[in-house]
Amino acid sequence: MNFSTMLSQLGNGMVTTITIFGLTLLFSLPLGLGITFLRMSKNGVLRNIAKFYISVMRGTPLMLQLMVVYFGPYYLFGIPISRSYRYIAVIIGFVLNYAAYFAEIYRSGIESMPAGQYEAAQLLGYNKVQTFFLIILPQVIKRILPSVTNEVITLVKDTSLAFVISVSEMFTVAKAIASSQTSMMPYVAAGIFYYVFNFLVATIMEYIEKKLNYYR
């Protein structure tokens, strides 16, 4: 196999990796905020359900969660598993897992806000929804960006776990090529891809932090 053919095959895996990454962020960030609301709810039942969910998602391996999402419908309900469901299962597994982590990050940011912010908003005539989305949330985002950046970088590397249910992302393709060609080059190429991808993510997040005047 020549170098151009290898890069072409790795490119297909690269597209899958980037898609998993993008869809996970797209759905897990808002879902995490929703779970945060439940976690901070005055309703004890909702609060404990969210707390238990976060505990399970953070306390068990992502690899195991992917297997449960993929094989669970068949073993629990006898629902046939189609080949196309593998990719959907990966997205569901990643979203559920990362939403739990983002929920705790959101919660720490919200709880760090001084009570005076809420009191000032109330004096200005804002209701609770307006106070949160117009005053509290923008400030929370500034505070939690470093933690979110760490999770996003981890997500880039975690996409390689999709191999556990036979989804051919970047690392899986590199491993298959390396095995068939008895060469380290596919691993080197994959390593460079992950490094460059993480470098771009870190650069973009740093730019956002500066735009939000985080360092001021």
Structural account:
- The chain has a single domain (3-211), classed as MetI-like (MetI-like fold).
- The longest helix has 37 residues, at 3-39.
- It is mainly α.
- The protein has helices at 3-39, 44-59, 62-77, 85-111, 115-123, 128-158, 170-181, 185-211.
Topology diagram in text:
Blueprint lengths: L2 H37 L4 H16 L2 H16 L7 H27 L3 H9 L4 H31 L11 H12 L3 H27 L5
Summarize the structure.
With 216 residues, the protein is mainly α.
Number of domains: 1
Query: Tally of extended strands?
Result: 0
Evaluate the radius of gyration.
Answer: 21 Å
The general outline is flat
Distance between the termini: 53 Å
CATH superfamily: MetI-like
* Mean pLDDT across all amino acids: 88
Key features of this structure:
mainly alpha, 216 residues, 8 helices, MetI-like fold, single chain
